[in-house]
Amino acid sequence: MTRIHKQESLLVESRFLWASLGVFLVLSGLLFRLWYVQIYKGDFYRGQSERNRVRKIEIPAPRGIIYDRNGEVILGNSPYFDLVFIPQYVKDRDTTFKILSRLLHVPVSKFEARLEMVQGQPKFLPIAIKRNLSQHEVSIIEANKLFLPGIEVRVAPRRDYGPDVPPHLIGYLREIDPKALDVTNKATSQNPYMMGDLVGKQGLEARWESYLRGKRGYRLIQVDAFGRQTEGFEENGWQFPSVSSVPGSDLELTIDKELQKVTQEAFNGKNGAVVVLNPRNGEILASISEPGFDPKAMQNGISAEDWRRLNENTFNPLLDKTTGGEFPPGSVYKAVVALAALEEHVIDPNKTYFCPGHYTLGNRLFACHEKHGHGTVNLMRALMKSCDVYFYQVGVELGVDRIAKYAKALGLGSLLNIGLNRESKGLVPTSSWKAMVYGFPWAAGDTPSLSIGQSYNLMTPMQMANLYATIANGGKVWRPYVVNRVTNHVGETVFEHRPELIREVTEIKAENFALVRNALMAVVMDPQGTGKNAQVPGVTVAGKTGSVQVVNLKKNSNKSSDVSMNWKEHAMFAAFSPAENAEIAIAVVSQNDLVGGGGRSAAPVAGKIIAAYWRLKEERALALKQAPPSASNQQQAEAHSHEKSEKTN
Question: How many helices (H) and strands (E) does the chain have?
Answer without folding.
Answer: 23, 24
